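fyi for ur records
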Amino acid sequence: MPPAIPLATYRLQLTADFDFDKAAAVVPYLKALGITHLYTSPVMKARKGSTHGYDTVDHSQLNPELGGEAGFARLSEALKQHDLGLIIDFVPNHVGVHFADNPWWLDVLEWGQASPHAAAFDIDWDLLPHRARGGVLLPILGSSYGEALERSDIELRYDPDEASLSAWYFEHRLPIAPERYGEVLRMVVKEADAAETEAGKRLSALGARYTGLRRPNRKEAPGFKAELKDIAGSADIIARGLDAYRSGKDRPAQTLTLHHLLERQNYKLGHWRLASSDINYRRFFDVNGLAGLRVEDPGTFAATHRLVKQLVADGKLQGIRLDHIDGLRDPAQYCQRLRRLVRDAQGTTKPFYTVIEKILCEHERLPHFAGVQGTTGYEWMNVITHVLVDAKGLEALDETWRQVSNRPPRLAPYVKDAKRRVLETLLTSEFIVLTRLLARIANGHYSTRDFSADSLRQALELYVLHFPVYRTYLTHSSPTALDRKLIDETIERARAEWFAADEGIFDFLRDALTMDLLKPDRPPHSAPRVRRFALKVQQFTGPMMAKSLEDTAFYQFHRLIALNEVGGDPSSSGLAIPAFHEIMRTRAKEWPQGMTATATHDTKRGEDARARIAALSEVTGEWTSAVSRWKVLNAPHLALHDNLRAPSATFEYMLYQTLLGAWPLGGPDASFVERIQAYALKAAREGKEETSWLNPHEAYESEVRSFIEKILDPAQSAEFLEALQTLARRVALLGALNSLSQLTLKATLPGVPDFYQGTEFWDLSLVDPDNRRPVNFAARHAALNSLDNPDWRNLTKTWPDGRLKLAWTRHLLKLRNDLANVFAQGDYQPLDVRGAHADHVIAFARRHGRAAAVVVVGRQYAPFTQAGREWPVLEGFDATVHTTGYIVPGVAGNQLPLARAFRDFPVAVIAAPAASAVRPARRRVTT
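which gave:
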């Protein structure tokens, strides 16, 4: 049996091209590598052709494209044979909608609020403007609604097998409400001139049978459709009669008929651009095709988690990763329900590994949720990067960025501007819902009714602009002290920018956000509305921060893009070693079982590309000089028209960092230019400066593509490419050393190391979809088999081929398995380092009882490599690690010279028993 808490996880991205069987074939390799748990992307049925699985359309079945139940059974058997556990990525927050594959969504479109699945979706039914009846906006049209009608893009069809009517817009199915079947049947019988036929008479009679509103109702509809299906010749009449609804520019009557039918449905069709201002269902961020689920509804929770419960009960699932926990209305309630479900399925004898995708901002503490061992590890990825980067070099890069951008090297103004942009474009509709709800609350009592809707909107906008993290975690009860402090501080920052008369509007907003409005001694306000507002604001600020920080500011602020990672601080000044130790001691006590990641499917670049770019902080003078020269060499390839400069100066600076990070060690192949161009297009649109997803600037994008093609063309840019390759070789060496340090820290710090697919070799990928390219597992397995007894010295000589990283990964994982209690449950003890180069060494011990390991990791290697020109001379490290209390093999006394610790490369993990046993400190254990 695999351990309940993983020793190491390995993430696989499952697709139709890499399904359950392909994953099963990789299991022996993962076992040989030292992995204890396979960790997969979502496995529930997703949209056909999905490359990621987060567009789940049916939580109740395994994805047929991945192999369905049979394929999953084979994967489970392979895992069982090799004693590996399984962790799946699970999506409780949203589902894929539109198209024709989500049965719940189609039912809601057909029946509106009468659908039993209506409670599963977060729809504000009464918010559609200029509409007498409630409905949901469907922003799926590629043109205006009128144009779509007149071009015959919307077509009414009859399915004789289901006896159902649906409008179709290309691949999107739009069920017709059964209450409208009667009028359609009358119209088609007339259009087909079939009133006197037997089938026509029966159709007319059936259509006239149900009178009154909303009939046939849900109980009557199955019988209605069955009778319709049984009428001989009905399908032919309906097929001919639907010509009455066949719209076209030269068919005004039919166009109007179809329009009137569509207007009386439970939905309203609209251009996709309407989503930003008029959409009335909660989405995942600004993705129209992903609708939020109300898992706070008990029925919805039970239905979406039934398969998970069964897999746990069958012993086929040992852990779960919860996607986008911040999207849920009440994450604490959700986690409690999930823990109860797991205990019902497997009992309480062992823990069930549960981690959450939670992005923590700087200095933010993770709340404790029932049954949760920690996060997926973004925060630890950033801590590792920050301790490895050269803080002095960051100061120099501040000045470089100031000159490039003509702006101060401060992130906050970028984020604030980005939030304004997102509020005005991407998430306007969600913000409108909140402001309307706040205005209704204010109007609910005479003491607050004079707060105008516009004033409330401005006050709430200022609050959102100044809110510093992703969300608070209020439940239906009062906020925690931490959340109250956060809300109070944000209100005060917002109030400081308010230039109109206050008159208590910010006090009212604060009390609505904290739900203090509902206290017994306060004027009465609608409790459901106040609670709904406070909890919906929490669901809004998360997407707001994500779209503003990760998906906008990170693509604008390019001081050192190694720091522009999910949950990171691009303006960081680095992390001193003592501060790093303190963070890890705290983690060992509070979150010893969460994941530690250095690459995921969501990271902005591969882990080794990031390590290379971080190394630029060590050679800032040469980097700045190189950029100055490159800008001159590439100036002829710039596009300069009127006010257009393509690429912009800041974007060009980012491109040079990207090229150094991703530059192939053996030189670029044929696909490299296309990969960089694809990355540049995404980065430019995400940055929303010269172009964007909503409003693409085709001329700018074309010129950026041309610029990249020209500067990477040896015939046009030989001098630049030679200079680039010279610096790239040096940065690659510094980056490789950084990567070994990063890998060693990940594998030995408190927490569970997670390995993203393929990263056992050098990972120079870019942001998705580049980081989802196929992985050559056969090559990795063959290389691993050849490294049973690695010759470390020879591996350092051939480090560019990646085998050094692979061998060191297996070595570290073998140590983790051999010293499982040390790394899974051990304390974290910083070790004192003394000597001229003490600041270049991170040293600590992990200890559990008498068993222990001493870890020594180098950093900032430029002084020891002639700035990346040669492999480090390890004898040049002038420092000693004081190992008092530990017995280091071959070392007399308590001093471990670095030259001895670093055998062939500047990292070391040494099994070193403690001189005496101590009871491990008590720590939080989650079950």
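The radius of gyration is 30 Å. thats all i got for now
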